[in-house]
Amino acid sequence: MRGAVARHGIVRTLSFVWIALVILAAIFASLLPIPKPDALDPFRRLLLPGSAGHLLGTDDLGRDILSRLIYGARVSLIVGAASFVCGLIAGGAIGIVAGYAKGKVERVLMWAMDVILSFPALVLLIGLVAYVGRSLFDISAVLGFLAIPIYARIARAQTLSFTERDFVLAARASGSRPRDILLYELLPNVWPPMVAYGLVAVGLTIVVEGSLSFLGLSVSAPTPSWGGMIAGGENYLRNDPGLVLIPSAVMCLTVLAFNIAGEALGAKTSKVGRA
Amino acid sequence: MSGLGGRIGRQVVALLATLLAVSVLSFLLTSLLPGDPAVAILGPSGITQQSLASARRALGLDHPLVQRYWDWLGNVVHGNLGSSFITHISVSSELRQHLPVTLELIVLATIFSVVLAIPFGIWSGYRAGRADDRIISLLAFAGLAVPTFVVALMLILVCAVDLHWLPASGWVPLTQSPWQNFRSALLPALALALPQMAVNVRVLRSDVAATMQSDFVTFAVAKGLPLRKILFRHAFRPSSLSFVTVMGLQIGFLLGGTVIVENLFSLPGIGQMLVQSILSRDLITVQGLTLFIATGFVVINFVVDLAYSLIDPRIRRGRNIATV
Amino acid sequence: MRGSELPKGTSAQRRYRQGGSAVLGGLALVSVLAACGGSANSSSNNGTGSSTTSGSTPAAGTPKTGGSMTFALESESPDYVPGGSRLAYSGSAVEAAVYDPLTQYQPDGTAKPFLAQSVTANSTSTQWTVTLPSGIKFEDGTGVTAQDIVDDYNQYIVATGSSDAATFAEVKSVTATGPLTALFTLSAPDANFPIILTNFFTFNPDLKSKYGSSYGAHPDGTGPFKLVSWQPNNQIVLQANPYYWRKDSAGRQLPYLSSITLKIIPDGNTRTATLQSSGIAGFETVEAQLMSSASSLPGIAVDNVDTGGAGWFFNTQAAPTNDLRVREAITEATDRSAIIAALGAGSIVQPRVEYFGPNSEYYDPQAAAALPATDAAKAKATLQGYINDPKRTDGKPVGSPVNITLNYISADTQEGAAVQVAQSEWQAAGFKVTLNATDEATQVSDAAGGKDQAFFFEWANQPPFGLFEHNYLPSKEDPANWTKFDNPTVLGAIQSLAATTDLNQTKSLSHTINMVFAQQLPVDFLFSSDEGWIYSTSKVGGLTLTPGSKGGLGDNIDWALMWAK
Question: Hey, are the CB atoms on B34 and C442 less than 8 Å from each other?
Answer without folding.
Answer: yes
